[in-house]
Structure formats: C-alpha cells, structure tokens
UniProtKB/TrEMBL annotation, chain A:
Bias kind Basic and acidic residues: ranges: 32-51
Name under which the protein is recorded: Brix domain-containing protein
GO cellular component: nucleolus; preribosome, large subunit precursor
PROSITE patterns: BRIX
Composition bias type Basic residues, residue spans: 21-31
Chain ranges of the Brix domain: 94-277
InterPro entries for the chain: Brix (IPR007109), IMP4/RPF1 (IPR044281)
Entries under SUPFAM superfamilies matching the protein: Class II aaRS ABD-related
Gene3D superfamilies to which the protein is assigned, alphabetical: Probable brix-domain ribosomal biogenesis protein
Top-level taxonomy: Eukaryota, Fungi, Fungi incertae sedis, Mucoromycota, Mortierellomycotina
Stretches the record annotates as Disordered: 19-62
GO biological process terms on file: maturation of 5.8S rRNA; maturation of LSU-rRNA
Lineage top rank: taxon: Eukaryota
Automatic annotation (TrEMBL), chain B:
Domain Anaphase-promoting complex subunit 4-like WD40: 51-102
Gene field: WDR74
Pfam families for this protein: ANAPC4_WD40 (PF12894)
Organism: Podila minutissima
Biased composition (Acidic residues): 403-412
Entry protein name: Ribosome biogenesis protein NSA1
InterPro entries with a match to the protein in the record: Apc4-like_WD40_dom, WD40/YVTN_repeat-like_dom_sf, WD40_repeat_dom_sf, WDR74/Nsa1
Region (Disordered): 183-205, 384-415
Amino acid sequence: MVEINTIKNKLKREELYQKQKSAKAKHKRDRRTALQKEESSNPEKKEKRLAENVPNTLENTREFDETIVEEDEEVAADEATDEFAEYFQNGLAPKILITTSKGPSASVYEFATELVDIFPNTHFVKRKAQFEMRHIIEFSKNRDFTDIMVINEDRKEPNALTLIHLPNGPTAHFKLSSIALSKDIEGHGRTSSHKPELILNNFNTRLGHTIGRMFTSLFPHVPEFQGRQVATLHNQRDFIFFRRHRYMFKNSKRVNLQELGPRFTLKLKWLQKGTFDRKGEHEWMFKPEMETSRRKFFL
Amino acid sequence: MSSQRFYTGDEQGLIKAVTITELPPVKVKRRKRNAEPVEPPAKPVPTVETWGVPDREKAIQLMCWDHDKKHLVVARKNGVIQLVDPKDGAPVTEFKQTLAKVDKVDTIFVGLFANSESIITCTNTGTLTVQSIQDRSKSSTLSVGKDICRMRVHPREHHVVATAGKEQELTIWDLGVLLKGPETPKKGKGKSKKESKAPVEEKNGAPYKSKEILANGQIFKAKNVKNDHLDLRVPVWNTDLQFLNQFDITRIAVGTRHHQIRVYDTKGARRPAVDAEVGTMPVVALANGKDASEVVFSDTVTNVYSVDTLTGAILGQYKGFTGVATAMATFTPFEDSTTTHLVTVAMDRCLRVHEMDKTRRLLHKVYLKQRMTAVVVGEFAPYEAPEDEDETGLSARKTSGGSDDENDDDLWESMGKLEDKKLKKRKISKE
C-alpha cells in the first residue's frame, strides 16, 4: 500500500485515491450483498443481528435515576390519594379554562384556538388586565373548573404554558417552543369534535409520573374511538412533544396516519405545590446547575 | 462502619428511619497522609425502614425528640400527637387535639417540643398547649395570638418559648409565669437553678427602654423595624425562628416571608440587631449553623443558603436541591470531630446530608419516595475499631452525653478530654 499523500504528482495521487475509494466501496457493497443473501435464506440470523446491534443513544445510556417508578406500593398509595385522585378515582370529568397573559397578541389567540380544539370541554376566556392570577384561580374554582392553562408570550410569540390543576394544585410551568399550527402543516386533516385518545410516552420518574397524570387529567376518561383521533405527548430527553393524528385503516393490516396538528414542544421549568402563587413552594425547579450530564433526565 | 440514623416524616403520615453507614472519615485521612494508595471507600448504601400506613389525614407536620431521646414525638395533621418508639415505630402514647378549620384555612401545628414531663405544641391559630405526658387530663391551653408561623422552645431553658408569625412580632414567653395559677409547672430535675435565672433577669428591669408594658408572661416582644425610605410601615411576616445559643436565650434569628434574616438580641434593643435582605423569595425554614455566628435558611425556589448572623451576609449556598427544603437540622456526626453536618428533607422527596465546612459538599442523598415535611437526627453508632480502644471509648462516652439535656459535669468532662487529645498531638509533633 502506497502512502497516497507522499505522492507528489497530483494526477497520480488523485487517480490512486479514487481507485482506493471505489475499492473500499465495492468491498462494503459486496459484504452487504453477501450478508443480505445469507439473511434472506436465514431470517433468524437477521433478527439476531438486529437485536444485538443496538446503537448507544443518550436515552439508553441514561444515568441511573433512583426515582424511576416501577411497581411500587408506596408510590401507588401516594398516587391513589394525590391531587389528581378526583379524576382518576372518582371519575370527575375535566373542565378546562384557557386564558393568556395580559395584553395578548394575535399569535397567542391563534395558539389558544388550537388548544381549545385539542382538549374537549374547554373554555377560552379573554384575559382582562384587572384580574390577577389568584383572582382567576378563585373564579375558576367557584365555576368548577378542574384546570387552568395560561399561555404566556414574549415578542408576540407564545413562549410558555402554565398548567394549574384545581382546586389544590399542583402548578406546572413549561417552556413552549417549536409551535406549528395546523394550517402550517402540509396535508393536515380537519379535526372532528370527538373525544381523542391519549398516548403518553416515557413519563417514568416520580416527577414524570406527576406530569403524566397532570396531562392525563386534561382529557376525558373514555375516548370516542369512532373519531380515530389520537393526541400524543411523547417525552424524550425531558422535552415533551405534542402531536395529534388521525389513524385510517387502509386494509386489515395497514394503517395510515394523518397529522391533524398543531405541533408544539414543552419543557418543564418548575412544578409548584398548590395553585399558582409567585411565592409558593416549588416541588421541583429546573436550574442550569442540575444539567451535570447530557445523559441525565428528570422526567 | 459507623452509622448515622435519621427519622423523617412525610405527607403520607409515614415515619422513615434512614440509616446511613459509612467509614469514619478520620481513618481515611490518616491513610492519605501515609500516602498509601487507597481505593475510594465504597458508597454506603442507606437503609430505610418505613413505619405506618399511608394516609394523608395523618400527614406528619412536625417531629422532635422527647426529653432523653427515648421516644419520637410526632404531630400529625389530624391533631394527633404521638410518642413513637424509635426502634420499631410503634406508637407508645397518643394525645388528641382538635384542629378545626378557621376561615377555610386548616389549622396546623407550627411548634412542637417535648421534655420529660410535658409536650408543648402550638398551632397557627395561636393555641399553645402544654400537655402532661404522665397525666392525660393535665393540660393547659394558652393563646399567643393568631397567625403564628413558628413556635420554638429553647433547647435548655424549657420554660422559654418564642413565637412569631404573620403580623406577629417575635415574642418570648415565660411558660412558668404564663401557667402560674392553678398549677405550678415544674420542668426537668436539674433545671431549678436555671429556671430561676430568666425571671430574675426579667425582674432586674426590662433591658430595653420602651415604656410599653409586656403582657403577662412575656419576657420580650420585638418591635417592627423603622419605616422604609418612603416612610411606609414595613410588613411583618415571620416564617421561622431559631435560638442561636444553647446557653442563653438572648440571641434569636428570624426568617421572614419578605426574604429578610433578622437577628434579635433581647439584651439590647427591641428592634433587630441585624436585619439583612437575603435573596428575593420567602424564607421557608431556618436551622442553626455550626455555631451562633451562622444560620442556614431555605427559600421557596429551592435554594439553601448559609448566613452570617453578625453581618447578615450570605456565606455560601448548599447545592443539589431540586425541591424546597422543608426541614433542616444541624448535627455533629462524629462526636469527637469538629465537623458539623446539615441534614435536610425536601419536597423533591429526598433527604440530603451536606458538610458544613467551606466546601458545603453533598455527602449523601437518599430518595424517600414521599414529599418530606420533618426530619430528626437520630442515634450515631460509632465505628468500632478493635485496635484503637481509646478512641471508641471516648466517642461512646460522648454519644451518651450527646443529648440536649446532658448535665454540666458531662460537658466539662468531655472538654477536658479534648484538651488531652490536643496535648497528645502536640507531643507527637514535637517528637
């Protein structure tokens, strides 16, 4: 083997390099076709290879977290009587109030309209400047609302979502990003008023459980399956991705998905015990110093 | 292996006994000095024992030791005060108080203390109850004003009670005077000498010049700080307080909802001697530092800071909290060492132990599955070194005398030993 970069003639060098490159590619191609041939006759081998060859990702090399909940009586007992017990144990149907920060701009209204569309039994109320959050919480409690969503904006774009569970909290505050409204999604479907199904993914830790329960309690207990609408909250690396689809049965085996929109991403910033209070006690709060590793996740 | 025990209380009414076992740090240091390659000691696995059945109505609000650390005293949400055996968590005795809702607000316990004879409790409605442990029927109730946020009893002078709250200035009460009348309270055996001290001090003329007459039983009542630069009254909302000194009652630190740490010197003025703004969020809990010159406080945005009580400056922050630290306690882990440790329980369901030196290092973190509300420092089982009998003997003796109510002899004895040790060291160095 000649050291290509020691050859002084540029033409010769290029020629050799190309030769070497194509030989390498051919070798790879040959290896792969041979493997393919072998595996087509022996599908078990392929399965074995795929099972063994798992690439390392941030998720599967996640740092050990003792708070991940697995079959735990104590946690189950805790959750059986927590703030969401009214929804989970007693079957209280959710009733949601959506409002904005003071003096909202058009984009916030647009986003609020989408949120109203997502959650059944939702009421949008225009925010009036004379009412503080504590007043709104009090009013909503009197009107039997179970949750309040407040959309906050910055530079005329929605940038945060605060979820308040009523009557006894908790309050979660999320950073809101990557918003794509339905109309911006190419080939999106039109929504129907059916109660959607809900998919929650990867809310594994104790904190994640609380957040997951919080989201669950925003949706009605029994979905209307004829609507074939699914709302997904997928947690990956502490980012919660919201997507909404309609599934369509192509034939008895295949299913197509049609995206309905909107899309947005949430990231938990803090969780407060009790209803929103600026001076309230935080059960969990994100701080930059907590990011000690890229493989550490909290939800 | 030496081990340290903690007892925690949580919102589900469970008591958890956490035992943290570790190699004594002294030993490790010595090895390092000899420059032998030492592997880092294996991370100790804390053991957790859980007592009780989950029930939110029995949520634990406060916990403390009784007189000689025989029983844990637990105050629960449903008004039950239990004496619990620290070995197996079995309730020994129970006292029931009715906590009625006032103006849609739950009545909660804000102070709990027990000595050999009685349990002293206080609720946020200002009902101070002195319940005799031996005689169930013997209890007296006093009112110390409404919206009380914290009541604490001086660790040595058990008749000195301090209260503070929302629009309630720091007030120090003398239970001896308060309870005078039908019954004469008699606290701990060897206490009679000290007990007489404080009233004398009071009789010697109020140390402050104000003409305001103290109500019956009050030793001291603080005065609000001066108006601000707009000549507006500064609102009062004290959230927690701590007696700074074990031996006298005059220095008290107070944390407020308006993020101030105030240190009162009752010998001096009625206004605080130190009034410092710390951070921007309300103070949740306050704990003593390693000595009277330091207090540790936690705020609602999960910070825990150490504050100098002489200047009011923040000395440093304890890191690692993801939830509000709801209860804190300081303790000396190895009785013959000079280090102090800070144990905290937080809303993020963890118990943490920090070192209270300049590094403020996180030593242990134990996940306890519940939102914790109370913590009590339990027994320390010393490291049993077979080859070094002297040291174990010393530490064992000190453990036995480590309780709040050790008598003076014990204290002097232990101090004498410390000197001996220093001398020894010096001798060695000279050699």
